[in-house]
């Protein structure tokens, strides 16, 4: 936590102790030359990942004061950015000033060989000063006083970015011994992947030398260890070492930010605040495979797919390819336009901004059901791919309209920024396609083989007849 003057009774030494809390191991202050040229807007999985890095997004919150305080704020009339992990706001020009007040984001991983190895099940609180805070103080039970001035500069609360507990900025509410207390991770601890499970490993000199040599077939090539792992010639800087517990239901969240009128972009930030940012993945940054491979051996794993039916199908297909056993159950946060699969599984027809804490409770407590999935083999032309559908597939009129929507959205994503507008596009494309009669008499050109050839009819006939609506 940063060092700010306030009307609370916290001493300077007290504030310095808070600034160092929650960061295991301690991190040396970086000089200006060591800072990245551009602020991170996504989780860094590379060798260059910094302990306690913030994840910055643009914000229009004019009521949020720059977190560094007036003493260190160097430009007050420019754009601000907000960290998704700890929810602090700073001016873009003031980001480097965070090093001066020794404030970093909540740690999302630990270093191999650090003292955290000896305390692998311990997560510390990550305390943050707040000038505005909803709810009530955990100690005295009173609400956090909001000044008549909307732009009050007084720090009124101290809250933890992990468990979300908040206290008044007074020694009568927040006591010194709480700084180093273990954090419970809050109401959703069962689905949060603790930072102590995720280990960043340094590449040793011997591994660097061996990587320059020609590849050799060896049983040790694809094994993981505390020294890291190298799979298919690619170095993996991170590995996951979970603690087995029947109470834990670790969750991976995959978000398609393009779904539902770009609603997913806000969802990503909300999940990074509620969970460990390293368990939230943007599907436009390489797809779901990397995340699924990293967490493949985590027991009781659950997955939340945030997007449309196509997003869910994509994740399920990658799970098929990886052959995980047992296969993790997949929940759905419907952000698409149709969301037929989400309706079938009782996740609703669309996300309506309900609190994410409610969604996380559904994921944790939801019943696991089996879903039939089919491999569709097209034999008429061997050049065609093998397609997978979940509970239905379409061809002809319906498929042509859906394909037109997909291609238009890929070409002009800025025009598809609301679910209502997407539905209007569907209606217009369907009406135009219907008038053109592009799928007329489609049934005359199709033969469906079940156990023996079947006759296609527009209406149900004998037991051997199959109806196809064209």
UniProtKB/TrEMBL annotation:
Keywords: ATP-binding, Kinase, Lipid metabolism, Nucleotide-binding, Repeat, Transferase. Residues 246-380 form the DAGKc domain. It is an enzyme of class 2 (transferase). The keyword rRNA-binding does not apply. Pfam families: C1_1, DAGK_acc, DAGK_cat. Residues 210-226 have a biased composition (Basic residues). Pathway: Lipid metabolism; glycerolipid metabolism. Belongs to the eukaryotic diacylglycerol kinase family. This is Diacylglycerol kinase. It comes from Cyclopterus lumpus (Lumpsucker). The lineage of its organism: Eukaryota, Metazoa, Chordata, Craniata, Vertebrata.
């Amino acid at each position: 936590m940063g060092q700010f003057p306030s009307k609370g009774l916290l001493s300077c030494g007290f504030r310095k102790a808070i600034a160092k809390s929650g960061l295991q191991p301690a991190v040396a202050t970086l000089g200006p030359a060591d800072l990245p040229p551009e602020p991170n807007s996504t989780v860094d999985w590379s060798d260059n990942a910094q302990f306690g890095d913030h994840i910055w997004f643009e914000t229009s919150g004019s009521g949020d004061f720059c977190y560094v305080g007036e003493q260190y704020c160097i430009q007050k009339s420019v754009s601000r950015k907000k960290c998704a992990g700890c929810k602090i706001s700073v001016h873009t020009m003031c980001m480097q000033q965070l090093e001066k007040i020794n404030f970093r984001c909540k740690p999302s991983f630990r270093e191999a060989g650090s003292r955290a190895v000896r305390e692998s099940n311990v997560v510390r609180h990550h305390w943050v000063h707040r000038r505005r805070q909803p709810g009530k103080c955990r100690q005295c039970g009173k609400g956090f006083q909001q000044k008549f001035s909307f732009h009050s500069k007084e720090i009124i609360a101290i809250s933890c970015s992990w468990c979300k507990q908040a206290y008044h900025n007074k020694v009568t509410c927040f006591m010194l011994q709480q700084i180093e207390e273990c954090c419970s991770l809050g109401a959703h601890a069962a689905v949060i992947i603790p930072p102590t499970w995720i280990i960043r490993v340094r590449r040793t000199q011997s591994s660097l030398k061996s990587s320059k040599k020609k590849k050799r077939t060896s049983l040790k090539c694809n094994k993981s260890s505390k020294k890291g792992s190298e799979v298919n010639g690619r170095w993996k800087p991170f590995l996951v070492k979970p603690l087995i517990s029947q109470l834990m239901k670790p969750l991976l969240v995959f978000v398609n930010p393009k779904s539902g009128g770009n609603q997913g972009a806000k969802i990503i930030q909300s999940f990074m605040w509620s969970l460990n940012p390293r368990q939230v993945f943007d599907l436009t940054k390489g797809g779901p495979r990397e995340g699924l491979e990293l967490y493949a051996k985590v027991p009781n794993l659950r997955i939340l797919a945030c997007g449309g039916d196509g997003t869910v199908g994509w994740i399920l297909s990658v799970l098929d390819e990886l052959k995980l056993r047992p296969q993790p159950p997949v929940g759905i946060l419907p952000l698409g336009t149709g969301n037929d699969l989400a309706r079938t599984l009782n996740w609703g027809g669309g996300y309506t901004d309900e609190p994410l804490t409610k969604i996380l409770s559904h994921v944790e407590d939801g019943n696991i059901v089996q879903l039939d999935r089919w491999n569709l083999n097209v034999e008429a032309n061997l050049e065609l791919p093998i397609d997978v559908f979940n509970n239905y597939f379409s061809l002809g009129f319906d498929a042509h309209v859906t394909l037109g929507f997909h291609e238009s959205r890929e070409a002009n994503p800025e025009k598809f920024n609301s679910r209502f507008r997407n539905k209007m596009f569907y209606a217009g494309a369907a009406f135009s396609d219907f008038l053109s009669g592009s799928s007329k008499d489609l049934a005359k050109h199709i033969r469906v083989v079940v156990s023996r050839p079947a006759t296609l009819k527009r209406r149900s006939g004998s037991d051997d007849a199959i109806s196809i609506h064209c």
